[in-house]
Design goal:
There is one protein chain. 31% of the residues lie in helices and 24% in strands. By secondary structure, the protein is α+β, with helices and mostly antiparallel strands. A six-stranded antiparallel β-sheet has the order 3-2-1-4-5-6. The longest helix is centred in the N-terminal third of the chain and has 24 residues. The C terminus is likely disordered.
């Protein structure tokens, strides 16, 4: 008694439960997106230092990072060096290519008064809080800021 034969009808209570779970999940996503719960974005502080970075791949495999305002060399990253910076910039560049955009526009690296640091691509809307990857990786980007003023990079709360 009470057994459902294989291939038989699905009990009404199971269908109601599945529907309720699906409805709750959809409601949670809508509320989360509208209230920005659980979303990581730009830090909440005020910008205190910023630089527009133009990233150029070199024939020898190195990456030239320059200030987009005046084409001044900020740093050259040789193959096998600064892998976090290299991988992050490459990921940002690939996002642009997937979106059908060109690499012409610079990325923006911004330090905020709360010590946090963000890499922002205004063309795709992508933004990454560098503190999410730990202080060592955040400092790898912080050294690209004007004057190499290394901030006390905080990890997001």
């Amino acid at each position: 008694m009470g057994e459902v034969a294989e291939g038989g009808p699905i009990p009404a209570l199971a269908l109601i439960g599945a529907g309720a779970l699906l409805g709750f999940t959809m409601l949670a996503v809508v509320v989360g997106r509208t209230e920005r719960i659980g979303l990581s974005g730009n830090p909440g502080g005020n910008p205190v230092a910023s630089v527009a970075l133009r990233v150029l791949d070199r024939p020898d495999g190195s990456i030239r990072i320059e200030d987009a305002a005046d084409a001044r060399l900020i740093e050259t990253i040789e193959p096998g060096q600064d892998n976090f910076v290299r991988a992050t910039l490459r990921s940002f560049g690939q996002s642009r290519l997937r979106a059908g955009l060109t690499p012409a526009e610079p990325f923006r690296l911004t330090r905020y008064d709360d010590g946090s640091l963000a890499l922002i691509d205004d063309t795709t809307g992508r933004s990454v809080n560098m503190g999410a990857f730990g202080p060592t990786n955040a400092l790898a980007f912080a050294k690209l800021l004007p004057g190499n003023a290394l901030p006390d990079v905080s990890v997001p709360r």
